[in-house]
Write a structure and sequence with these properties.
This protein has helices spanning 9-22, 26-33, 42-51, 131-150; strands spanning 58-64, 67-70, 73-76, 82-86, 96-102, 122-128. It has 151 residues and is an alpha+beta fold. The chain is globular. The model has no long low-confidence stretch (mean pLDDT 84).
Length: 151
């Protein structure tokens, strides 16, 4: 069983970032990250591995209805949205995600747990499900007129 990391300063800071972004109570996120949570038991393991420098440098947090794979089909579960962590490889993003990127040295990949503010070890931000569409619109709006003027 993984450790309860929700009491550490680093994870408390991460919880506040997630709560602010999704506009939900910190207690909901804290509960979702506890090792004894039966709805999303993988969260605590993924969080612990990421903080220890194992696996992907990216950790994503979604607040959405999870998908169910039924044969070749993917359908939404008939449930309320929930907080869950992922590396982004198997779960599709439907709305918005908060990402945390581990910026540690490969020789010492562990993240300090006694830090309660953003520091150089962790970068974070938001991704939307349509971020490529937004990038395309941005480029059309700003860069296409500049390129047209150059011609």
């Amino acid at each position: 069983m993984s450790k309860d990391l929700t009491l550490t300063k680093r994870v408390k800071w991460m919880i506040s970032v997630i709560a602010e972004s999704f506009n939900i109570k910190e207690a909901i996120i804290e509960e979702a990250l506890k090792p004894d949570n039966h709805i999303t038991p993988k969260n605590a393991i993924l969080l612990q591995d990421w903080l220890e420098g194992k696996g992907s440098k990216a950790l994503l947090c979604y607040y959405q209805i999870q998908d169910l794979s039924i044969g070749d089909e993917i359908k939404e579960a008939n449930a309320d949205p929930s907080i869950f962590l992922t590396n982004g490889e198997n779960e599709r993003l439907k709305d918005k995600s908060i990402y945390f990127i581990r910026q540690t040295d490969d020789k010492k990949p562990q993240i300090a747990l006694d830090v309660e503010v953003n520091d150089p070890q962790v970068t974070y931000g938001e991704l939307s499900a349509n971020c490529l569409v937004q990038l395309h619109k941005f480029m059309d709006y700003y860069y296409e007129p500049m390129i047209n003027q150059m011609e």
